[in-house]
Amino acid sequence: MCLRLLPSLLVSSIEREMPLGERGGWESSESMYCGVETDFSDDVPSLLSFHISTGGFDYVLAPLMNPSYRPSLVEANGSSDTQALPVSGSDLVLAPSQWSSHVVGKVSSWIDLDSEDEVLRMDSETTLKQEIAWATHLSLQACLLPTPKGTSCANYARCVNQILQGLGNLQLWLRVPLVKSDGDSMDATSEGLNDSWELWNSFRLLCEHDSKLSVALDVMSNLPSESSLGRWMGESVRAAIISTDSFLTNARGYPCLSKRHQKLIAGFFDHAVQVVVSGKLVHNLQRASDSNAEGTQRHPLRSYLDYVAYLFQKMEPLPEQERIELGYRDFLQAPLQPLMDNLEAQTYETFERDSIKYIQYQRAVAKALVDRVPDEKASELTTVLMVVGAGRGPLVRASLQAAEETDRKLKVYAVEKNPNAVVTLHNLVKMEGWEDMVTIISCDMRFWTAPEKADILVSELLGSFGDNELSPECLDGAQRFLKPDGISIPSSYTSFIQPVTASKLYNDVKAHKDLAHFETPYVVKLHSVARLAPSQPVFTFAHPNFSTKANNQRYKKLRFNLPSDAGSALDSLAILIPSCIKMSILGSSLQQKHQTCSAALSPMHNTNGRSYWVGL
Ligand SMILES: C[S@@+](CC[C@H](N)C(=O)[O-])C[C@H]1O[C@@H](n2cnc3c(N)ncnc32)[C@H](O)[C@@H]1O
């Protein structure tokens, strides 16, 4: 969620300076904002005026209900029918747009839905429902749910899941401390929490991966290991709440963060995670210069906000290509099926923009030409080259340019099964005057009876997982017309696989509520993923392959070792390489004690009923 600030309607004094500023080359739609955690106040306009106008923060993370409120006490007084809920003020004190852009609601932190104490448990459930209902009434964008009190949170999750079923646009952020002990009890929290990812994982599983449920991480002064932090990059983390206690003091007495914290925060910015500053002023720097021109005191947490803004502004600008591709990040793209379907002009145009690819093809064809025809025979011998799957002709052009560059005589057959692309091919040949050199064949390469054999077979049939657009099947058919010593370009390719968790992608697929989408080998530009182990090669394909045993049924079992400090990871397990194929994982979980993941790749079958993704 990107909190956008709307013009102040009722509280005219609320005017903010600027968010965290601009990251070089960053799209304005990607601006980052910084919130501040506050105590309960029944004067919300003053609260906003102080933290937003004076403090420069973008929004407040504020309790919605008086913390002393307990439904059972109100009932005991017999006043439940006559008393209004002790909320932070009437909805009328702010315009709906202000509530939604300046306030994230904080559900009472005392609630404990798994308490043994029945009164507390009942009070907790009632209050949680009342606060969420109030937040919905105010049109808030998000509400922070308090951290579960212990490691067992079944009733809390059950209740939240029930709320999620009827929730409109409100997002719920479960507050979770960023901890993972490495066996050293010092790292664990007082509630005995050793690995907060486990807590989050159990909670969201009980809430059926609802996409309206996300995490807000409490960033502590001690950070867990890199591998364990990496798991959070595949989760829907919405906010990082940094306590003022986690800041160090620089030489000039100002707050700053450790190098590891800086790296973590930069990673969060890169994943659109909002930062919230929490706590009291612990770097006591109030000086004369801390008052502004009108003599108003500077906000006590301003130096923390300035430091967060500094971290954002010093980030490297995004490379041009990355910026162009921003819209594709973590976006499920339906895979192409060029053998079954006829590609559209727009798709060919996208291929043809990849100039590097055609330069490499031209180089490869030039080398093959020189390899087959020595200089002294260059004027006598004509090389027969077949472009199989010629599309609109870029590989025909690259091949002719290679012939010109090497001064070799070339005869080209351009084989294409898409009749629409064949129209373009005919126009191209006519326009370029290639009629003497190029013959167009409108046919499926697997069934063409070629009039002669080829020296060189050029194709570009690769899917992003190598064979998933059926390159081996097509080339096995086409190699009938390649001379026994002929050359295939490409001559080989390998697919790779890597286990990752990717909560957003999992939810996007799950939203379709059918198996077909879990079985679809989507193409994805991965961004919010946790890479659990290094990638490994899966299948290598070599062409030509004249072996009589050639067969395109493949099966492979791989073992991935997860770093021992990573903790467990599963459930939104995904696998991806350049794009994805579906794979099944043998064994139902990756537990901490068994730091391995066995993967059996079988593109057509999912043996254990779970779908996973594969990618790089
Ligand atoms: C990925 S496109 C590449 C097109 C072109 N070579 C380029 O680089 O722009 C693959 C092309 O192969 C064609 N194709 C796929 N299978 C084929 C087959 N069995 N026989 C003939 N053409 C095929 C498709 O129609 C498509 O035009």
TrEMBL record:
SUPFAM superfamilies: S-adenosyl-L-methionine-dependent methyltransferases. InterPro entries: Arg_MeTrfase, Arg_MeTrfase_PRMT5, PRMT5, PRMT5_C, PRMT5_TIM, SAM-dependent_MTases_sf. It comes from Brassica napus (Rape). Residues 492-566 form the PRMT5 oligomerisation domain. This is Protein arginine N-methyltransferase. Residues 321-489 form the PRMT5 arginine-N-methyltransferase domain. Residues 56-314 form the PRMT5 TIM barrel domain. Keywords: Methyltransferase, S-adenosyl-L-methionine, Transferase. Belongs to the class I-like SAM-binding methyltransferase superfamily. The keyword Methyltransferase applies. The keyword Nuclease does not apply.
